[in-house]
Design goal:
The protein is an alpha+beta fold and about 170 residues long. Helices cover about 65% and strands about 15% of the residues. A three-stranded antiparallel sheet has the order 2-1-3.
């Protein structure tokens, strides 16, 4: 079965989303700075810059395994598996298996939550910016991860895998 032009675009977008996902996970995401003003002099008390994977590691090391697991699952594992399964679905020859795998990917896409995670980071950024003694700076990893979210969603919109026609009943 030939691959449609829109599926070729989807494949390209999936590959681009993977290219954006890796730096989105490994590059710094957000820098939070806490300072105090005393008699007109500002003193920095705290500065923390982390990537998503560093955050997972730090959560694990501090005993927050459940939260670390959730961030790892929904921000790393599900997005990586989703893209891989879409690529596999496009290479399968059996139409029913291809369609079933595509439906499975669409179902788990709702649980990827990478976009929800990104919104949460953005809300933390805005909250820190609105506080007198806190400041936040979105780092390059934030933009890579945002790019991943957008391109990944777009690839799923281009992908077209149709339900196979039922096999004709054999006369007995």
């Amino acid at each position: 079965m030939p691959i449609r032009a829109r599926n070729l675009v989807a494949i390209g977008l999936i590959l681009v989303s993977y290219a954006l996902l890796y730096p989105g996970l490994t590059r710094p995401l957000l820098t939070i700075t806490a300072s105090i003003d005393f008699m007109g002099v500002s003193q920095e008390l705290f500065r923390e810059t982390r990537s998503i994977l560093q955050t997972v590691r730090n959560l694990h090391e501090s005993g927050n395994d459940f939260v670390a697991g959730l961030v790892l699952l929904f921000s790393v594992v599900v997005p990586a598996v989703k893209g891989l399964l879409l690529l596999v679905a496009l290479t399968l020859r059996r139409p029913q298996l291809r369609y079933d795998l595509f439906r499975f990917v669409r179902a788990i896409s709702k649980w990827s939550m990478s976009d929800v995670f990104l919104v949460g980071v953005y809300v933390a950024y805005l909250a820190a910016k609105a506080t007198d003694n806190l400041d936040a700076a979105a780092e390059v990893g934030f933009y890579y991860f945002a790019g991943y979210c957008l391109v990944s969603l777009l690839s799923l919109q281009f992908l077209k895998i149709e339900r196979p026609a039922p096999a004709p009943a054999a006369d007995g």
